[in-house]
Amino acid sequence: MDPLQVPRPSSLDDDLFLEEDDERRRRPWVQLLLALLVAILAIYWAGQTASRLWLEDLDKRLLDAGAGANATVNTLERDQLSAYRGIAFADGFAASLKRYDARDIERRLTPVDANHGMPMIDIIDDQGRVVFAFRSNGAVRPVYRQRLDVSIVRQALAGETDQYGERFSDLLTTDEGPLLATAGPVRLDGKIVGALLVMTPLDQLLSRSTNTHGALLTAYSLDRGDPLATTTPIRPRTLVTDLRVRLAQDGQLPYANRFKIGGTTNREQIGSLTLRHRTAAFLGAALPDRSRYVAWRVMVIVTIGLLLMAFLVWTVAYAWAKDKYERDLLALPKEPLALPPAPDSNVHGANPLGNGP
Prior knowledge:
Blueprint: H1 11-88, H2 93-98, H3 102-116, E1 120-125, E2 130-135, H4 151-157, E3 168-174, E4 177-188, E5 191-201, H5 202-213, E6 216-220, E7 227-230, H6 241-248, E8 255-261, E9 264-275, E10 278-288, H7 291-330
Antiparallel strand pairs: 1-2, 1-5, 3-4, 4-5, 6-7, 6-10, 8-9, 9-10
Helix pairs in contact: 1-3, 1-5, 1-7
């Protein structure tokens, strides 16, 4: 065999070579697809995690706003009890009430009412009739001439007591609006001669709490789920019966709810409006829900970060591959490879000219 002749590879060697070449070509695409899949999953996970953390922080703020509203209720109840004591035990007031002297009642109680600043006070005789009524500027004018339909007034006139004494507080739904009311008896020589009903509109209470904590507040009735008072720009919808029954069960509060105001989705946490350690109404605290915006924003930021990282990695890898190629090229031998000498035909006695011997 001629020493310069390279043996031709077999067909099996050709097939193996082609398969290895195809595998080398497919491998980068497979790796790229896997990297792209991992990047998509990472972006989605980052967005969902950011949304979840934002909602957890929002729920905490809403629950704090609800707790702040209940603290405002307790403070208001103490203020109303203080106003009740200041009026019921004012010098000469019980005697004036017994003889129905409205002029003397006004003279004695106007300074006391101004000191306590209660927006609504009804002075009631022992028959449940309203003898005199104080209203602050801008408050609803007196509507009722008698208050026997109010349970806490009946309890006060009957001299009933509970674990907190003979003064009672409740959330009333009246033609004057929903009211946070406190009632107690007025005694003269140990005998009940009337009662006091000190009231504050619920919407004023919610507005005060909204100004303090920033959340939109809504009080829902326990029996029908109607919104009694709210600080939202629109009247919220009534709680459906199934939801109201569910919320009335133990362990179901707080409950997360959503509603829209002007096209903006608001997240609401519904809890209890507590009065004297019992639930007087459902209390909803709401703020705009921007969790989807937060998720998309985080996903965009993570996508940009991954693209920048991929560009940097590609730049470094390209520079390294180029440098390696140039170094390998410089390392090649400068002299051409020497070929083996041609065989000498005279060794075998052949005539190179083709002539005979």
